[in-house]
């Protein structure tokens, strides 16, 4: 028979294996208690955010007296990198980056309102890339062409512009390079590397799609998927992916290849997502302005080299890069005819190198390159950009 507990055995000891003690009950979190803690933290956060904004406003006043620009790609990248380095979780790094981006965007707007031109309309990939760099507290100016972005800056209507430079699938963006040929005085201040995910958007069902609208680059990046899954559909090139979404919203049996955000803004259903042929589909955008960017120590420089159409001209021009161990990371050729006689074209080469134009080794290298070229334009030195999700 089991032995009965004696009177000298403490009741608490006998019950400890089956029920929590009063001490444990007090320590167990409750929903009300956790919400109260969140409210307390939120109050502290609001106080700290406003205090930070006050200091940012003072910084803006100092910048104005010194003639320094409000926006600095270098400084904002440093702030975000430091925040990500300090974080030990559990908040995801991308979420923390977005929080700090908007915090700095709002603080910057207290110093001065910025205007940024981009290839519109709203929710195009150019718009998404601009927001990824500048945040929401900016006056965005949508324009109808890449050339118009340059002109908005050239006419002092905006302080900054954002244009696509190259895509990992399709290579160069010819409209951007052609405009740099005409306006080489504008400088690249920063880059945005946007991971692009295309969606098939529409009001009808997938099997009912008769027309597919999108920008030529997006159509090219999804051509195998479209050919396999929508062989009966007519493909129509329009000025931007956001404009394509507007077409799909207006027309029956039409679809668009565009961003999820463009679909949501036009009330479209996502018929298929991530339809890009290459999973690592990244478009590199350039932030352009009138002034160059300062050195950071982790920079790249974009050059435009004008060469005669002669055998060996390119090899001679780029030889100093190898000699001085300056790494080239990108090169694109671009022919241009300069008069009505249609003589043999002069070839331009767009080149990215590691380093800043103020670095001693880069200066020595460029001096040697200039001796081998008809003309060398430095389109900008700027910090290397991290890849962000579109």
Structural class: alpha/beta
CATH hierarchy class name of the domain at 291-389: Alpha Beta
The name of the CATH architecture of the domain at 291-389 is: 2-Layer Sandwich
The rounded distance between the terminal residues' Cα atoms is 72 Å
- Biggest sheet character: 7 strands, mixed
* Element string (H = helix, E = strand): HHHHHEHEHEEHEEEHHEHEHEEEHEEHEE
Q: Looking at CATH, which topology of the domain at 291-389 would you report?
A: Alpha-Beta Plaits
Number of strands: 16
In CATH terms, the superfamily of the domain at 291-389 is: ACT domain
Round the Cα radius of gyration to an integer and report it.
28 Å
- Low-confidence segments, given as residue ranges, are 9-17
Binned strand content: 25-35%
The gross shape turns out to be globular
What is the arithmetic mean of pLDDT?
A: 87
Number of helices: 14
Helix fraction by DSSP (H/I, runs of at least 4): 40-55%
Explain this structure.
The protein is an alpha/beta fold and 390 residues long. The chain is built from 14 helices and 16 strands. Strands 1, 2, 3, 4, 5, 11 and 16 form a seven-stranded mixed beta sheet that branches. The protein has a five-stranded mixed beta sheet with strand order 8-7-9-6-10. A hairpin with a 3-residue loop joins β3 and β4. α4 packs antiparallel against α5.
């Amino acid at each position: 028979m089991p032995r009965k507990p004696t009177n000298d055995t403490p009741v608490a000891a006998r019950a400890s294996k089956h029920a929590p003690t009063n001490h444990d009950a007090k320590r167990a979190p409750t929903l009300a208690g956790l919400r109260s803690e969140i409210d307390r933290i939120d109050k502290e956060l609001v106080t700290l955010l406003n205090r930070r904004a006050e200091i940012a406003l003072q910084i803006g006043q100092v910048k104005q007296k010194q003639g320094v620009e409000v926006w600095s790609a270098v400084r904002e990248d440093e702030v975000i990198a430091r925040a990500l380095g300090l974080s030990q979780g559990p908040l995801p790094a991308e979420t923390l980056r977005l929080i700090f981006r908007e915090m700095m965007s709002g603080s910057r707007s207290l110093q001065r309102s910025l205007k940024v031109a981009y290839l519109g309309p709203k929710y195009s990939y150019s718009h998404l890339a601009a927001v990824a760099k500048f945040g929401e507290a900016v006056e965005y100016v949508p324009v109808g062409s890449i050339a118009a972005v340059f002109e908005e800056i050239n006419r002092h209507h905006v302080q900054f512009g954002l244009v696509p430079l190259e895509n990992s699938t399709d290579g160069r963006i010819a409209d951007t390079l052609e405009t740099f040929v005409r306006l080489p005085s504008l400088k690249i201040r920063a880059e945005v590397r946007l991971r692009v995910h295309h969606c098939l958007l529409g009001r009808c069902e997938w099997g009912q799609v008769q027309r597919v609208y999108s920008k030529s680059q997006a159509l090219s990046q999804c051509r195998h998927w479209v050919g396999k899954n929508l062989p009966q559909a007519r493909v129509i090139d329009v000025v931007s992916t956001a404009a394509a979404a507007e077409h799909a919203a207006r027309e029956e049996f039409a679809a668009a290849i565009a961003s999820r955000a463009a679909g949501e803004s036009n009330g479209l259903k996502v018929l298929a997502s991530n339809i890009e042929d290459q999973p690592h589909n990244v478009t590199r955008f350039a932030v352009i302005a009138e002034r160059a960017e300062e050195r950071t120590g982790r920079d790249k420089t974009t050059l435009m080299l004008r060469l005669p159409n002669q055998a060996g001209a390119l090899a001679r021009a780029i030889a100093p890069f190898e000699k001085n161990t300056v790494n080239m990371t990108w090169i694109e050729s671009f022919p241009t005819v300069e008069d009505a006689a249609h003589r043999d074209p002069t070839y331009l080469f767009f080149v990215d190198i590691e380093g800043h134009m103020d670095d001693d080794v880069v200066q020595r290298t460029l001096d040697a390159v200039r001796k081998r070229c008809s003309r060398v334009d430095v389109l900008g030195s700027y910090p290397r950009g991290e890849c962000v999700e579109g």
